[in-house]
Design a protein that fits this description.
By secondary structure, this protein is an alpha+beta fold. 35% of the residues lie in helices and 18% in strands. The chain has 2 domains: 266 residues, Aminopeptidase (3-Layer(aba) Sandwich), CATH 3.40.630; 122 residues, Alpha-Beta Plaits (2-Layer Sandwich), CATH 3.30.70. The chain is built from 13 helices and 12 strands. The strands form 3 sheets. The chain has a 5-stranded mixed β-sheet. Strands 9-10-8-11 form a 4-stranded antiparallel β-sheet, covered by helices on one side. Strands 4-5-12 form a 3-stranded antiparallel β-sheet. 45% of the residues are buried. The structure holds zinc ion. The site of zinc ion (ZN) has 5 residues, from helix 3.
Length: 413
């Protein structure tokens, strides 16, 4: 399954429909109806499906289907052909982030069906996560109307099996600088969009330094303060021409509880009050626009039954979700891991950050993952139904990851 999923080049700039239709056909083959939630252009789609009884209190297993580009990265094997190397790892774009999780979910559909679940398991796969979770919004909206309220969502992002119970807010913005072309020997006649974009980047750097001073220790996120990044710079036509246009694709992340609009607000103020007037002093036709590209709300840590389920693992500083779950539910299976760490550069040059252990292909991750979820679903979740915290638990956010690498090859995990 993973090999098949990796073979679809679902880099975010491409359509994911081939992969989504493959998943839909696969689910159809198992008698599971799924629903597609397409984007406006009909070029991409989310998918969701439910297995088990039609009632509240289920668990959503959520993953994204797109991957980051491989352009310019030093791959030593075909990133779209899952390859097992001598180290026992499987290499391919998206193996960890996060087709491995999607494959695991799909591989165990039959087991879900046989499990006689008391509450449903929902599958929810989105598009365009890597460029701002663009698909997740419409997926979530449709889920709210289409399926009974679940008790928890497990997002299988690679965090080394760490329990991530909070997430920063994120904003993506495109800044477009419009200058006036002129020959590079006649700088007094034009306005270089690139030079003013450079001023803006410098300002962002200074803002970053300022915001880093406000590091928080009351919340378990890394690095504990707002971050800013300019990811793409494009502009200019020749070395001897003042650039007419320059665009910056940049973004920021703010901690849960912090004002998620502060960076954008300050950027708009800086542009309107300082940078644009400075640019227009050189030429009145110069311009700067800031366009919001994406926004993700923060996920706040919550005190509820799901949080209490995860806490033992976090407290031991060995944040293994499975161990935590097993601790609470004796019949839950042994933990299962893949390689890949959100905090260790998963988007770095290809292979090192895109490998997953062989066992995924064997389906053992699938078995463990879904048994875990199924057990929690059939056993633990129903137990919570009489819990006084149940209503609060309905809004719970569970861990962000289900995969982590375990040390020794061949060890029964
Ligand atoms: Zn991801």
């Amino acid at each position: 399954m993973l090999k098949r999923l990796v073979a679809f080049d679902t880099t975010s700039r491409n359509s994911n429909l081939e992969l989504i239709h493959y998943i839909q056909d696969y689910l159809d083959g198992h008698g599971v109806k799924s629903t597609l939630v397409p984007n406006e252009q009909g070029t991409k789609a989310n998918l969701f499906a439910s297995i088990g009884p039609d009632r509240e209190g289920g668990i959503v297993l959520s993953g994204h289907t797109d991957v980051v580009p491989v352009d310019g990265q030093p791959w030593t094997s075909d990133p779209w052909d899952l390859t097992e190397k001598d180290d026992g790892n499987l290499y391919g774009r998206g193996t960890c982030d996060m087709k491995g999780f999607v494959a695991a979910c799909l591989s165990h559909v039959t087991a879900f069906q046989r499990a006689r679940l008391r509450v449903p398991m929902h599958l929810a796969f989105s598009y365009d996560e890597e460029i701002g979770c663009l698909g997740a919004h419409s997926l979530a909206e449709r889920l709210v109307g289409a399926v009974p309220r679940p008790q928890a969502v497990i997002v299988g992002e690679p965090t080394m099996m760490g329990v991530v119970n909070a997430q920063n807010a994120g904003g993506g913005i495109v800044a477009t600088f419009t200058g006036i072309e002129a020959h590079s020997s006649m700088t007094h006649l034009g306005v270089s969009a690139i030079h003013f974009a450079g001023d803006f980047i410098h300002w962002l750097n200074e803002l970053q330094v300022e915001l880093a001073q406000r590091k928080r220790t009351d919340i378990d996120t890394v690095p504990g303060h707002t971050t800013i990044n300019v990811g793409i710079v494009t502009g200019g036509t020749a070395g001897n021409i003042l650039a007419r246009e320059c665009t910056l694709n940049w973004g920021y992340r703010t901690l849960p509880g912090d004002d998620p609009w502060e960076v954008q607000r300050r950027a708009e103020k800086y542009v309107a009050e300082l940078l644009l007037p400075k640019m227009r002093a050189k030429h009145p036709d110069a311009n700067i626009t800031l366009r919001r590209r994406s926004f993700l709300p923060a996920l706040n840590p919550e005190e509820n039954v799901e949080a209490s389920l995860a806490r033992p693992a976090m407290d031991r500083r060995q944040p293994h979700l499975c161990r935590a779950l097993r601790h609470r539910g004796r019949h839950l299976p042994r933990p299962w891991h893949s390689d890949g760490d959100l905090r260790a550069g998963r988007h770095r040059a290809g292979p090192s950050a895109q490998r997953v252990r062989r066992q995924i292909a064997d389906g053992r991750l699938a078995a463990t993952l879904s048994s875990l979820s199924g057990a929690a679903c059939a056993g633990r979740a129903t137990a919570y139904q009489h819990d006084a915290d149940r209503r609060q638990a309905q809004t719970a956010f569970l861990p962000k990851s289900l995969v982590r690498r375990k040390g020794r090859t061949g060890e029964r995990q």
